[in-house]
Amino acid sequence: MKSKVVWIPCPIRPGDYAGWRFLSEGLAERRQADADFRFIFIPETNNQSFVWATLVSAFRYAWHVRRYVASRSGNAVVFFPVFYLFNVIAAVFLPRHADFVVLISGGELDRGSAIAYKLRLAMIRRARLIICLNRDDWRRLEVLGIPEDRRVLNANPISPEFRPPSPEERDQARRIRGIATDDLVVGTVGTICERKRQLLLLEAIIKMKNNSKVTVVLCGPYTGNPEANEEYMRQCRSLACANGIKIIETGRISDVRSVLWAMDIFVLASRREGMPGALLEAMACGLPAIASDIPGNRDALDSGDDEALLFPLDDSDALRSHLEYLCGDKDARLKHAEFNRTHFNSTFGVDKVDQTYLQALL
User: Fold this and answer.
1) 301 and 310 in contact (C-beta within 8 Å)?
2) Which site among 14, 50, 134, 255 is 20 to 30 Å from 221 CA-CA?
């Protein structure tokens, strides 16, 4: 008998929702006759009462999940694609017989608050399966005593809409943003914040021997802590202006693909990732990519062939070296673009990712 499935994504950014929606539609198209894929949403909250709003939403959310599971007489799988506070609370209130699967995305195993860590760990131990996005989390679960048959290694789903652009599509993506034909566009996608390290990217570009033709695209919202993140963006603007670096800010945008199509080089300088969706999207679009050498980033880029352009965390000189290499050599950009696209298709392609989720959930 096939299971009923409840999908419970957290729409942190439009791309997250699109990816999970695409995956659910892809699984449904396989026509599992008895499989019922559903979403339950928690609205994103950005205000001073964030904690209170999250708690209220979590309890309301937990009630809906519990009611749905109870109505299916045990023939349901509850899938938590992110295991943040509201999902942990929802898991606590699940019936004891409930079958649920957890995806951990890079921060859930950090100790942080002792109470939150213990609660999260208890729910992870109770889950039937834990899906890991990177090998480091896989090994941490092993240390915690989670047996191998309850661990699954997989990636976030990336829509096949992310593909290399045609020359006309690339020109259009640059033209609508006022980017000159001969400009070298270096960009990044992610929340504007200290964790994503957009300032480090600017510092590295400033150190380059020849940056006169470099345009920097910063794509991302100010979610989480808007005041602090807006101040962080002001620091980015100030640093770029003082050093004659042109930056383009997109803010929150639904068409991330178009932004990626305007780029020549993608950079992700983050301090922490699970499996970086933006990096996978850039690889799917056929971009050469540079990333900080942290869990998730190295899982995405490193295929063991010494082709990955990784740099030590917070090392602007190493990042500058990679940027000078790519900016100064078009053939190198084409080589790494082709490598990334091929590596993405073979490792993170939709068929492989879909099949892994299908096996884990049903």
Assistant:
1) yes
2) 134
The type of residue at 323 is L
What local confidence, expressed as pLDDT, does residue 126 receive? 86
pTM of the model as a whole: 0.85
